[in-house]
Amino acid sequence: MDIRIIEKTKNTMRFILSDVDVAVANSLRRAILSEVPTFAIDDVVIIENTSVLFDEIIAHRLGLIPLTTDLDTYSYSEECETEDPEVLSKCQVTLTLEKEAIDDYVMVYSGDLISEDPNVRPVYDDIPIVKLAPKQRLVLEAYARLGIGRIHAKWQPVSTVSYKYMPLLNVNYEKCNFCGKCVEVCPKNILDIKDNALVITDILECTLCMSCQEVCPENAISVEWDDKTFIFSLESTGALPVEKIPDLAAEAIIKQCENLLSQIREIKAVKEADSGGS
């Protein structure tokens, strides 16, 4: 297995995963979505709400606000799903909000949430929650907990993650007459004719639509793909650094494999014991 990062910004990344089959690639994608822990608001106590929105609607909006996640201080386990206060102290953070409109309309934003831990706070301060009319007031306590996307989508660390096969575009220059029809039909504009040659400007942008192959009158172009190499694209919600997410997903896969092997060994040991006893 080999991973090569080809593009990275603050919250987006593209990398090439090679020397694996599609099962491994899909396992990584699914683990990113369902096994990487992040913080999200899970419980909300509404102390006062005279806004136009019901308590449940406000609680739902709060739950979908991405929160920065400190996995060095807090750690996720299935115990985080309990109500035991001692256990929750290791995977829970309290946020409070108090906002009132006096003489004019006031918009309540995610930045109005005050966290007891500055390392766990809304990623963005400008997410609207509710608009208060004059004399309306909102006071609440929210409890953010560590969780994983397998439990609820609000704990997913990415807004999107996808992969595609590495495209292979083959040109038979003996047949090609440089008519330019493939250049015109390409939706990604990755083909060009320069110096009497068909040039592929960016093979990574190819969507494997095969339009160039279908339109070529000389059958000079063939579109294939490498079924052992994949181009991954992911976008973090900002809860975790984008480069850390695949690492955590891979660790989760390894842990699950080790757990599976452990259970297989236990079953095998029980069967051997039963066979020996008989």
Question: What would the keywords be for this entry?
Answer:
single chain, 278 residues, alpha+beta, Gyrase A, domain 2, RNA Polymerase Alpha Subunit, Chain A, domain 2, 6 helices, 12 strands, 25% helix, 33% strand
Structural features, described:
With 278 residues, the chain is an alpha+beta fold. The chain folds into two domains: 1-36 and 156-278, Gyrase A, domain 2 (2-Layer Sandwich); 38-154, DNA-directed RNA polymerase, insert domain (RNA Polymerase Alpha Subunit, Chain A, domain 2, Beta Complex), CATH 2.170.120.12. The chain is 25% helix and 33% strand. The protein has six helices and twelve strands. The protein has helices at residues 22-34, 55-63, 85-88, 181-185, 211-215, 244-277; strands at 2-8, 12-18, 38-49, 92-100, 106-109, 114-115, 128-132, 137-147, 158-171, 191-193, 198-200, 221-236. The strands form four sheets. It has a four-stranded antiparallel sheet with strand order 1-2-12-9. Helix 1 packs across helix 6 (244-277). The model has no long low-confidence stretch (mean pLDDT 92).
